[in-house]
Prior knowledge:
With about 475 residues, the protein is an alpha/beta fold. It has helices at about 25-30, 100-110, 145-165, 175-185, 235-250, 275-290, 300-310, 325-330, 340-345, 355-380, 395-400, 410-415, 415-420, 455-460, and strands spanning about 1-5, 10-15, 65-75, 80-90, 90-100, 115-120, 125, 130-135, 165-170, 190-195, 200, 230, 255, 295-300, 315, 335, 440-445, 460-465, 470-475.
Amino acid sequence: xxxxxxxxxxxxxxxxxxxxxxxxxxxxxxxxxxxxxxxxxxxxxxxxxxxxxxxxxxxxxxxxxxxxxxxxxxxxxxxxxxxxxxxxxxxxxxxxxxxxxxxxxxxxxxxxxxxxxxxxxxxxxxxxxxxxxxxxxxxxxxxxxxxxxxxxxxxxxxxxxxxxxxxxxxxxxxxxxxxxxxxxxxxxxxxxxxxxxxxxxxxxxxxxxxxxxxxxxxxxxxxxxxxxxxxxxxxxxxxxxxxxxxxxxxxxxxxxxxxxxxxxxxxxxxxxxxxxxxxxxxxxxxxxxxxxxxxxxxxxxxxxxxxxxxxxxxxxxxxxxxxxxxxxxxxxxxxxxxxxxxxxxxxxxxxxxxxxxxxxxxxxxxxxxxxxxxxxxxxxxxxxxxxxxxxxxxxxxxxxxxxxxxxxxxxxxxxxxxxxxxxxxxxxxxxxxxxxxxxxxxxxxxxxxxxxxxxxxxxxxxxxxxxxxxxxxxxxxxxxxxxx
Length: 484
């Protein structure tokens, strides 16, 4: 018996046990990803194909999808490939080709399980990549840090990011492998997640939010009011041990602080942090243990040079870095992830009233230099990624800010294929190519002509697909498999 129930949270259908399938029909019931339900019950005796452990949250394979007549955005070359056919199976792009009526008809007849979607007039864009987020930063409550409440709040924000079109994010301070695995298994609908664990900081550095009058404690977690977002380490031995522990815990990368920052309470924004030997110990550890790279929170020229000399391959923010150092970054393939929206939210937005006066003054210093730094970095050939360092609500606003200094095709590359290079996932993410992950957006306008359309998702964003599974859609025939 089924019963329709209305509540403040929406309409729901209650299903009695009598309506659940029995025996062989249990398998049939769970085969379709669009009619799948988590397994909370099974008949007795158990079906012959029943296995333990029973991961009841495991979804059926992704429904094969064929999208026809779609305008594919080639972000790497800044062009449109019109009237294309794109086939998706098992979470990957299987075929990207010119539309051919005879071949398409044969394929559908031979493979009736394919779901065909007419996308005429729509633009297919690779899923967006934000290479600088802190998913735990907004999870602290008024009563301080709680791991349990943080998990629920993070789930809320991850769903929002995915719904806005970010199919991949890189957390650079706090997130763990458990957050990554939760989105991989679709326990939480959210972006593909790359994590580094807590940031490594020297005593008195950007990551040190401890009591400035307290005695130093080697290797301590410095959480302030934002959870375990940094570890304080001093000396080569401590850096080695902390880096090894983070890699053991499942880090994809490690982030350090090689200069002062805006929100840190006790350092100067133009201070240089960690010695070259300390940084080198961390970089050597990440390389030897199979990580992608070490990236550095860094605003200063000398902090960047120290980091690059020691083996760092990514610079976050970079506001005060001079042109010769940017050229060095381009020569050595060191990535840059600037973050405009967070400083604008402090200097010209509501965060200014919430931060200490010293942080506001530091924010004004970096905000006045970052735009020109980005223009120079682009001109000299640095690989620039899209990063925000900010809350979900304004994550897309970074597009509007970058549009004041760079062309739309350049910015779209930053938010797609450039970010994939930072993650070590070139040709697998941030592109629409055979063999790449099937992460994409469907838009009713061309972001190569105006990148700012991406910051109007309610108007122009028609579908979001990650791993070939649709989470948001107003496109006829393209069903939402996993609602947000």
